[in-house]
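Q: Predict the assembly, please.
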Amino acid sequence: MSDFSFFPIVFYLLAAVTVASAAGVAFSNNIVYSAFALMGTLLGAAGLFVLLAADFVAVIQVLIYVGGILVLTLFAVMLTHRVADVRVSNRALGRWSTLLVIAAVGAMMGRALAITTWHQVDPLVPTPTTYGIGDGLLTSYVLPFELASVVLLAALIGAVVLSRKELKDEPG
Amino acid sequence: MSVGLTHFLAVSLLVFLLGLYCVLTRRNAIGILMGVELILNSANINYLAFARYSAGGYDGQVFALFVIMLAAAEAAIGLAIVLGIYQTFHTIDVEATETLRG
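A: Predicted assembly structure:
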């Protein structure tokens, strides 16, 4: 990797932020701290996306995850947990059996990662990707694109139906 | 050793394992949803790493966008369900909501 001399430094910094924040999400006893640590993971992942020459996906990650999903999660946290019992709000059960499962899955995937020789091509040069993505969305991927709009519409209606107040007195 | 595909896959693996731990141990429904977000993010890192180092096109980036879109839909529906559970049970501990257990 010779396109940046500081590429490894930036990569290791972003990887450390991402993994450390993910550990914060997984191990924190306070659900509010977990939510804020999730922001570190999402921003670190956005930085990794930039390093992977995916500028548009990185911007979308910041807009939708950090600007939308995280704010929604924080709203749900604030609406559901009582501040008084904040210490027990995020209790975890079965730590040791879960660690066993995690170790098994991690060993299997790590071994697959270590022994596989991946097919490699010359890495993409970082160029603006919006043209290629827009072209793909309207040619090869037009059917998933339309399906995505239907899914989003269904999710919108579903969320409204789930969270509205029931009007019992009106028949039908 | 220069930073390459394997390094990104290793980061993705770590995030995935932490997300799996979160999903399996949390008893708070919102904590479980956060674990799902971690897992989806690790999948996205994989997509983009393979798109850059192994496939060389825009296909991986387009699919990463679809994953982000599905995560948004999942978060909206999931949190609406969590709020509904909270209104009914006054808790979001998933072990307390066992009305359907026979």
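Chain A touches chain B through 83 residues (CB under 8 Å). The CA atoms of residues 73 and 120 of chain A lie 38 Å apart.
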